[in-house]
């Protein structure tokens, strides 16, 4: 339920209303806009008499929300959320270019790539230390050593870092990582979602392989219900009947999610198609559709990459993508 407060309401009247609503055992969230103050009620509001609330002099109107994702819904938070990743803003007109290798392989590799993608315009460095692989015989990542190398690359370049966490036992290793990534396979790992929700740290939440929009937003709700509202959604392609590409990029997710939620939405064109030659056109398509950023895999020698080489761009190819994305955003006046 949303309670819209009248424009001329005094602060003491608003606080008195909030205290009264909290007496029903509800979570109360307040948003102050240019014209109205909104009070969001989270919990079982069935016992509340809507007519009684509307009769109060301080109340303009009430609106009942049907969506189960009370924190993530745009109806309760009409203004875009801007997530700050150690000084890099995402959402609300701020566009992020996240780039780096699928997995950290060596000190020389990650620092070299970090320097090159930064020179091309990347604002956040990505790199996997723990890798969820379909085969138990595939490279699983360097683990804790990979995190240390990412932190070295951060020190060398000044780029904030984002890396995927797979289990709550790994949380101590990620204390100095600027943004935690929840991968597609862990989108509904509810124990992990609740634990990262207790942190004061941005979270990049990837859409599950076959997840609906509501399931994706409910995963975000798990994080936000614990107090962490710094969530960035990432569309990375979904599983369909098509076999020519690794996944099918759902471009519709960008405008639709912007309607449904106030959270930023970015696109992963690398995982979407699984082919490096598709990354450039998909990046432009996502930019044109209104994405708040891109996360792109870049490797200095894709042919010898230990993970996902076929979908990784070379640094030169990434430079071309960033130039064209910037030109398109300028043309669209974003």
TrEMBL record:
Transferase found in the keyword field: yes
Listed name of the protein: 3-deoxy-7-phosphoheptulonate synthase
The record's keywords, sorted A to Z, are: Transferase
One term of GO molecular function: 3-deoxy-7-phosphoheptulonate synthase activity
Q: What is the top-level taxon of the source organism? A: Bacteria
EC assignment: the record states 2.5.1.54
Q: Which residues form the DAHP synthetase I/KDSA domain?
A: 82-323
UniProt xrefs under Pfam families = DAHP_snth_FXD, DAHP_synth_1
**Claim: rRNA processing is one of the keywords in the record:** no
Which gene is this protein's source? aroF
Q: What class of enzyme is it?
A: transferase
Q: Which residues form the DAHP synthase ferredoxin-like domain?
A: 1-67
């Amino acid at each position: 339920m949303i309670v819209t407060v009248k424009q001329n309401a005094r602060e003491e009247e608003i606080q008195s209303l909030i205290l009264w609503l909290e007496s029903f055992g509800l979570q109360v969230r307040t948003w102050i806009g240019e014209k109205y103050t909104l009070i969001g009620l989270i919990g079982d509001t069935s016992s509340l008499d809507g007519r009684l609330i509307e009769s109060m002099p301080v109340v303009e109107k009430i609106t009942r929300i049907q969506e189960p994702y009370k924190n993530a819904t745009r109806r309760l938070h009409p203004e875009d959320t801007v997530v700050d990743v150690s000084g890099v803003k995402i959402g609300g007109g701020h566009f992020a270019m996240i780039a780096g290798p699928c997995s950290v392989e060596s000190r020389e590799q990650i620092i070299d790539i970090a320097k090159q993608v930064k020179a091309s315009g990347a604002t956040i460095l990505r790199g996997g230390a723990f890798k969820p692989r379909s085969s138990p015989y595939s490279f699983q990542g360097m683990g804790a050593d990979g995190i240390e190398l990412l932190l070295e690359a951060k020190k060398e370049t000044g780029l904030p870092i984002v890396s995927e966490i797979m289990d709550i036992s790994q949380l101590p290793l990620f204390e100095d990582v600027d943004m935690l990534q929840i991968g597609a396979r862990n989108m509904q790992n509810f124990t992990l979602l609740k634990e990262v929700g207790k942190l004061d740290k941005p979270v990049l939440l990837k859409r599950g392989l076959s997840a609906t929009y509501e399931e994706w937003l409910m995963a975000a709700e798990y994080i936000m219900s614990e107090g962490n509202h710094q969530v960035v959604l990432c569309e990375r392609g979904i599983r369909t009947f098509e076999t020519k590409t690794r996944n099918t990029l759902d471009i519709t997710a960008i405008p639709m999610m912007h309607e449904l939620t106030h959270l930023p939405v970015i696109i992963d064109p690398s995982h979407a198609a699984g082919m490096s030659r598709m990354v450039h056109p998909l990046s432009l398509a996502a930019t044109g559709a209104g994405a708040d950023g891109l996360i792109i895999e870049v490797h200095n020698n894709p042919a010898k990459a230990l993970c996902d080489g076929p979908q990784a761009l070379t640094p030169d190819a990434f430079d071309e993508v960033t130039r064209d994305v910037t030109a398109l955003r300028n043309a669209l006046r974003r």
